[in-house]
Design brief:
Strand content: under 5%
Structural class: mainly alpha
Radius of gyration: 19 Å
Strand order of the largest sheet: 1-2
CATH architecture of one domain: Up-down Bundle
Shape: globular
CATH topology of one domain: Four Helix Bundle (Hemerythrin (Met), subunit A)
Largest sheet: 2 strands, antiparallel
Number of helices: 6
Length: about 200
């Protein structure tokens, strides 16, 4: 149990020192997690929307068949995110109920992306800092799984970021500029050295 709590403790320390003044109701960690999730899911959704329908079956040239297609990565991310949020919320996961075959057409994937985001956003809105240390159990014996709510939320955000990076390489391979790039560049300004 100690090894599971360490990442949560480290994140709590960082979030409480960085965001305690902006956090409503003295809940810096849960506020930080909600904001982090919202930011990465916005970028993830924008990349999915940007990729043309005909390229959802795209995988890098020379890649073996085990390398997921663009649509396969999107489905994997949605399925994992949906499952983690459902587990934390203690509800059945509707994406798992669809079965293991990946859905790779753009219209159905975007519907799953949006539905998953609505459910996860609602779940994360209920979390408090104290609830992040609660242990949740999913499934039935002998296949029960346990997780700490905070670790599950952190994993979901990290997993989204990891695969957002995958999707950016696929987008760039198709000659497209990821939607977050202009926004990130606009938030930065060049450092101008002072005149002597």
């Amino acid at each position: 149990m100690k090894s599971r709590a360490l990442p949560l403790l480290m994140l709590l320390t960082i979030a409480s020192s960085a965001g305690a003044q902006q956090a409503p109701n003295g809940a810096p960690l849960s506020t930080y997690l909600r904001r982090s999730y919202a930011a990465v899911f916005k970028d993830f959704t924008a990349v999915v929307e940007m990729m043309p329908e005909q390229d959802f079956g795209f995988r890098p040239a020379g890649a073996v068949n085990e390398v997921r297609t663009f649509g396969g990565i999107v489905y994997h991310v949605v399925a994992t995110t949906s499952w983690m949020c459902a587990m934390g919320n203690g509800t059945p996961d509707p994406v798992t109920a669809l079965g293991p075959a990946a859905i790779v057409d753009k219209t159905r994937l975007l519907a799953l992306v949006n539905d998953t985001n609505v459910r996860c956003t609602a779940y994360l809105a209920t979390l408090t800092d104290s609830a992040l240390t609660e242990v949740v159990t999913s499934g039935s014996a002998p296949n029960q799984l346990q997780a700490i709510r905070g670790n599950a939320a952190v994993f979901t955000i990290a997993h989204l970021n990891e695969h957002y990076g995958n999707l950016v390489t696929y987008i760039r391979a198709k000659g497209l500029v990821p939607p977050a790039v202009p926004a990130q560049a606009g938030a930065l300004s060049r450092v101008v050295p002072p005149k002597p």
